Amino acid sequence: MQSAPDRHEYPAHWEADVVLRDGGTARIRPITVDDAERLVSFYEQVSDESKYYRFFAPYPRLSAKDVHRFTHHDFVDRVGLAATVGGEFIATVRYDRIGADGMPASAPADEAEVAFLVQDAHQGRGVASALLEHIGAVARERGIRRFAAEVLPANSKMIKVFTDAGYTQKRSFEDGVVRLEFDLEPTERSLAVQRAREQRAEARSVRRLLAPGSVAVVGVGRAPGGVGRGVLGNLRDAGFTGPLYAVNKAFPEDLKEIDGVPAHRSVGEIDGHVDLAVVAVPAEHVPEVVAECGEHGVQGLVVLAAGYAESGPEGRERQRALVRHARAYGMRIIGPNAFGIVNTAPTVRLNASLAPEMPRPGRIGLFAQSGAIGVALLSRLHRRGGGVTGVTGVSTFVSSGNRADVSGNDVLQYWYDDPDTDVALMYLESIGNPRKFTRLARRTAAAKPLVVVQGAGSAPQGHAVRATRLPHATVSALLRQAGVIRVETITELVDTGLLLARQPLPNGPRVAILGNSESLGLLTYDACLSQGLRPLRPRDLTTQATAEDFHAALARALADDACDAVVVTAIPAIGEASPDDAELAEALRTAAAAGPAKPVLVVHVELGGLAEALSAASSTAPRARAAATTDPQAHSAPPRAAESHTADAHTADAPAPGAPAPDAPVPPAPQPPGSAASPAGAPEGAHLIPAYPAAERAVRALSEAVKYAHWRREAADPGKVPEYDDIDERGAAELIDGLLARGQGLTLGADETRELLGRYGVHLRPAVPAPTPDEAARAAGALGYPVALKATAPHLRHRADLGGVRLDLADEEQLRRAYAELTELFGSAEELRPVVQAMAPRGVDTVVRAVIDPAAGAVLSFGLAGAASQLLGDMAHRLVPVTDRDAASLVRSIRTAPLLFGWRGSAAVDTPALEELLLRVSRLVDDHPEVVAVTLEPVVVAPHGLSVLGASVRLAPPPARDDLGPRTLPVY
């Protein structure tokens, strides 16, 4: 686009789609010489006042010289960006590099003047804030470190854009003008501001889809049947509260309505505004529909059509074109190949999906990428709705299909501060941006439970995801670190979700078990042990137990400080005194209502009536208030304000946050903006008792609740990243820069590795090459006996089990004998690459690794060294930077951790020294992203201190950190 020889090539990587404050989208791109007409048209639509604020004088029109200046850039010293909607400019920003005298300059000058102009119709949408983020990133890329801006005092909106950005800045007032200067290096506050804006914008963009004021279904067939006609019927039957429109270009001109809904031949013919369009036409006709919707001002699309990325390379290109087309008009897309969306809120009642029945309203948010899995989840919730679920139904449901645009990350942003959602359930076949998902999941999980099933295989054909080198188990561990409740099946997803939606979080792992079957009680006891819980001895009430017996036993268990949760087991009983389902349910319910600080679960065998009675809508209040409401729908989505009056009867008092005791109450969740405060750890409807048909399912759900509650307690005090006085960050940076000057990526030699690690206080025990027995003897004499002789060939390295290591060689004779044995067994010295190393104090051999994954970020891993741990995959993982609490939990997370703490009479090792080593390695890779891989193996941890016997370090230019850059929508 730029043809002059002094100009750089067009920087296509600066192009980006962004979500604005109101949830709409815009495209940001560099301004080129081809934009002259667009610029003039844009300027004509700007008010005289805005022009005055921009140029400090009346400036009714741009001269030819102005147009040339504002469209001709070298993309280094002079850069202009435009925000566009529908291909037309809605805002511009430019910078000009200046020297110390304020005159135009080139590098190495690192300051630039910046100026904005936003069309009046689009002011207040956050366009200038988004442009500032992007022009700032461009400037940093071109070596500019500071912006200066001159603003009239009356231009308060623009002053606010600069001051609210979070950058370090200086302000002065001179000659009637406010001069602002600010550094462009991201700060903790600027990143927090950016992420807060991102959350609000993305949440509103999803809200526009899930709570539209009006809906058009495009592709409604004239004959009954078909996808479009079905969706229209589902919307109508659900009782959608806004206007509905049926659209099909094949409708006869005299057709005014279909199924009682106004009929139109195109979206453009609709007189009223359309917020959401459900597109149910074949893929080849979708572009025409998108253009119609964009021209009519539609805010979002649900594209049901298949034939996109799931069909191969041609379909993938069609999908990318669809997203570009929709975003150009400021629209977001659910799909393509989507099942649809649902919002059960009484003010919306939206069923824009292929589900023939509206799900029961409730407080569970549900997201599924797969339409088939979405159907299965809705079906499961519906089947259990009359029994287990009751009013704990669905608040919103999104099936994203190929998730070409709106993804699980966007829906998480919406759920975070959605007052109608208490628990979030997600089925993810792939994670497009693991780094961002982990960040959002951690914030969401601190406020409400997030339960996830993650597909273990490769991403479906329709999903373009970032490549990750991390194994599935590692990604799962990182999600758990972020507070995600990871389950394996959709059955577990529903079981766990229903418990968390109905009951308070347990304060510990101690479980009381009571019931009328000794065998079922023992089965539940064994299930608790297998899940790592601490069950108390089951209490058998015998098969002759009455409802009063159950009530008394449950009341005693709930009052017992020695238990944190109660599992009630019940089987059908025979006899005149045996309670019926309703009687037993009422007994359990009233007992639970008197001690609501602990979760209660029921394991029932062939007692459908009991499950139904336990979840009956009339049981959602204590007996004293039960008669106040008998209409089941009255409890389907109760307002939070009303429920707050019963909070004391159903939840524990909120404790001081961060209490360290393992049985301390769960700290109250931080309340997202716009959500009402709820009692600590207790979701709405907590007085509903979930019932399960098998002990294993109930206990598994309880186990996940216990682990999540423990994470919530830990998250209240995440710890800190310690400072170490002996770390030489600057020296390490200089060393890394010098090494990288040799090439793009390299594995360091032994001396370089020792020097770099030493800058961070990690000291590597010397290993001296020994190509001959004589050199081995000389090395041992210099190091001092006893010594170790090791083969470092790749097939023998770190494999003591293969016999390539000889330890405790006390003198030269033993050393020479060991050398001869190794060469006789494994080959020549050239093949073995033997080294001599001084013996380290005996201890436990461990391994510490850190890698920078392009998708997930920097990950620190720990485990015991040796083939057995590798075979079992017994490694623990944490995201960098690691805090002191993270390091302590990392050491204790592996299954073989007891070996570090004196297992079977062995000496406990120095775990504080091990934790310090983990923290130092974490600091190294966090401070220097050029360190893309570190392996310390083995690290021998003794009762006092540790020894690092082997290490490797790899350097490379760091992968791009898109989470530190400006806000952009992903391009899949």
What is this entry, summarized?
Helices cover 35% and strands 21% of the residues. It is α/β, with parallel strands linked by helices and 972 residues long.
Description:
The protein is an alpha/beta fold and 972 residues long. 35% of the residues lie in helices and 21% in strands. It is built from 30 helices and 39 strands. Strands 1-2-3-4-5-6-8-7 form an eight-stranded mixed beta sheet, sandwiched between helices. Strands 11-12-10-9-13-14-15 form a seven-stranded mixed beta sheet, with helices on both faces. Helix 9 links the parallel strand 14 (300-303) and strand 15. The longest helix has 23 residues, at 188-210. The radius of gyration is 33 Å and the shape is flat. The protein starts with 15 loop residues before the first strand and ends in a 17-residue tail after the last strand. Mean pLDDT is 85; it is low at 1-6, 386-391, 617-663 and 674-686.
How are the secondary structure elements laid out?
Layout: E1 16-19, E2 25-30, H1 36-44, H2 48-55, H3 64-71, E3 78-85, E4 88-98, E5 111-118, H4 127-141, E6 146-151, H5 156-163, E7 169-174, E8 177-183, H6 188-210, E9 215-218, H7 227-238, E10 244-247, E11 257-258, E12 261-264, E13 276-279, H8 286-296, E14 300-303, H9 313-328, E15 332-334, E16 340-343, E17 350-353, E18 361-368, H10 371-389, E19 394-399, H11 408-416, E20 423-428, H12 434-445, E21 450-454, H13 472-481, E22 485-487, H14 490-502, E23 510-515, H15 518-530, E24 534-535, E25 539-540, H16 547-559, E26 565-570, H17 581-594, E27 600-604, H18 608-614, H19 623-626, H20 640-643, H21 647-650, E28 691-692, H22 695-715, H23 729-740, E29 746-747, H24 750-759, E30 767-769, H25 773-783, E31 787-791, E32 805-809, H26 812-826, H27 829-832, E33 834-838, E34 844-853, E35 857-864, H28 867-872, E36 875-879, H29 884-893, H30 911-927, E37 931-941, E38 946-948, E39 951-955
Parallel strand pairs: 5-6, 9-10, 9-13, 10-12, 13-14, 14-15, 18-19, 18-20, 20-21, 21-22, 23-24, 23-25, 23-26, 26-27, 27-28
Antiparallel strand pairs: 1-2, 2-3, 3-4, 4-5, 6-8, 7-8, 11-12, 16-17, 16-19, 29-39, 30-33, 31-32, 31-33, 34-35, 34-37, 35-36, 37-38, 37-39
